[in-house]
């Protein structure tokens, strides 16, 4: 997450950001420039999108990657690395979604603290959210949080289980497939 640039209303942010060549997140009136990721980050996102897309074919659910936004009330508009929505009300030209069932963040050293704390707290406000996933390409750690109705979360460290298991969409992805291409030049 970059440094805040200016204070805007949500409507002003959406109008302003649509004209920017870079991606900017919005949180409580402040906008933050999104920084580019490293090779491992991009490789994990590409692997996720391929497997999610194949898994979700012929279902009402669709995966999206880092160029689509998730809006959380009037408070925030964020760019998750990957998310899945099963809400059919969106048209083909939508760029802002409000009902993800899964949000996945691929961690980097510069965003890890934010993804684990403030960003997670914001996403937990989404009534649709069933799973929040943190993937660390450097350590190969995979953590899944499942929000409960009482606002607590079930934490599952799937790093040693050999697969990423997403109950909300019935996905079981071997970690070898998730991290494929990470060790090649």
From TrEMBL:
GO terms for molecular function: endonuclease activity. Gene3D superfamilies: tt1808, chain A (3.90.1570.10). It comes from the Bacteria. Residues 11-165 form the Putative restriction endonuclease domain. Keywords: Endonuclease, Hydrolase, Nuclease. PANTHER family: GLR1098 PROTEIN (PTHR36558), RESTRICTION ENDONUCLEASE DOMAIN-CONTAINING PROTEIN-RELATED (PTHR36558:SF1). This is Uma2 family endonuclease. It comes from Azohydromonas caseinilytica.
């Amino acid at each position: 997450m970059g440094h805040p640039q200016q204070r805007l209303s949500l409507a002003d942010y959406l109008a302003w950001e649509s004209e920017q060549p870079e991606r900017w997140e919005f949180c409580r009136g402040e906008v933050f420039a999104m920084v580019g990721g490293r090779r491992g980050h991009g490789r994990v996102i590409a692997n996720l999108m391929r497997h999610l897309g194949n898994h979700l074919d012929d279902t009402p659910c669709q995966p999206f990657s880092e160029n689509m936004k998730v809006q959380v009330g009037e408070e925030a508009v964020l760019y998750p690395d990957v998310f899945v929505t099963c809400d059919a009300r969106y048209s083909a030209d939508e760029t802002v979604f409000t009902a993800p069932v899964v949000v996945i963040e691929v961690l980097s050293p510069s965003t890890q603290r934010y993804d684990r704390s403030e960003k997670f707290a914001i996403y937990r406000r989404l009534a649709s959210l069933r799973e929040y996933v943190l993937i660390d390409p450097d350590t190969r750690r995979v953590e899944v949080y499942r929000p409960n109705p009482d606002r607590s979360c079930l934490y599952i460290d799937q790093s040693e289980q050999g697969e990423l298991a997403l109950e909300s969409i019935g996905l079981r992805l071997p970690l070898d497939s998730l991290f494929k291409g990470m060790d090649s030049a």
